[in-house]
Amino acid sequence: MTMQDCLFCKIVRKEIPAAVVFEDETVVAFLDIKPVNPGHVLVVPRAHAADYASTDDASLRDIAVVAKCVGQAVMRSLQAPGFNIGVNNGRAAGQLVDHMHLHVMPRFEGDGYELWHGKPYAEGEMQEVAEKLKTALG
Ligand code: AMP
Ligand code: ZN
């Protein structure tokens, strides 16, 4: 897929309509068409990157700061007592659109949206996994 065909690049370039709530030189934020709750916003870098893991650090900082402002705005203007920030990286994680985006999801008590449920580690597995990650991150 080229950037020419990318859905969110088209929104960034204003080639297809979106309910844009904020934009600056590097970031565009617009309403998700299928929200968890009304006011669910997608924050995207103008520069195309396929997913979170391949996004340059400057763009990541920019979208994180805008996501904070969007979160404050949904609490203030939509009276949401909380919000979740989410990223789906890769198909296995539920990523459908291959242009990096942060979800900012307004949350209300008892709105029925479920977070992940944790599962326990097997004996010794936790240390093993921690070692692999430490090595990869070192
Ligand atoms: P993800 O599963 O993290 O890739 O999320 C993609 C999101 O994009 C979904 O929540 C969709 O509802 C949303 N979406 C798809 N097409 C559009 C569009 N044209 N305008 C706004 N949001 C969209
Ligand atoms: Zn794109």
Produce the secondary structure layout.
Elements: H1 7-12, E1 20-23, E2 27-31, E3 41-45, H2 57-77, E4 82-86, E5 102-107, H3 125-137
Antiparallel strand pairs: 1-2, 2-3, 3-5, 4-5
This protein binds adenosine monophosphate (AMP) and zinc ion.
Zinc ion binds at residues 3, 6, 8-9, 48, 99.
Keywords:
138 residues, binds adenosine monophosphate, alpha+beta, binds zinc ion
Explain the overall architecture:
- The protein is of the alpha+beta class.
- The chain is 29% helix and 18% strand.
- It contains three helices and five strands.
- It has helices at residues 7-12, 57-77, 125-137; strands spanning 20-23, 27-31, 41-45, 82-86, 102-107.
- It has a five-stranded antiparallel sheet, covered by helices on one side.
- Bound molecules: adenosine monophosphate and zinc ion (ZN).
- Adenosine monophosphate binds next to loops.
SSE series:
HEEEHEEH
Q: What profile does the largest beta sheet have?
A: 5 strands, antiparallel
Radius of gyration: 17 Å
Number of helices: 3
The whole-number mean of residue pLDDT values reads: 96
Question: Share of helix among residues?
Answer: 25-40%
**Record field, number of beta strands:** 5
**Distinct small molecules:** adenosine monophosphate, zinc ion
Distance between the termini: 33 Å
Strand fraction equals 15-25%
Précis, in short:
This protein is α+β, with helices and mostly antiparallel strands and 138 residues long. Helices cover 29% and strands 18% of the residues. The protein contains three helices and five strands.
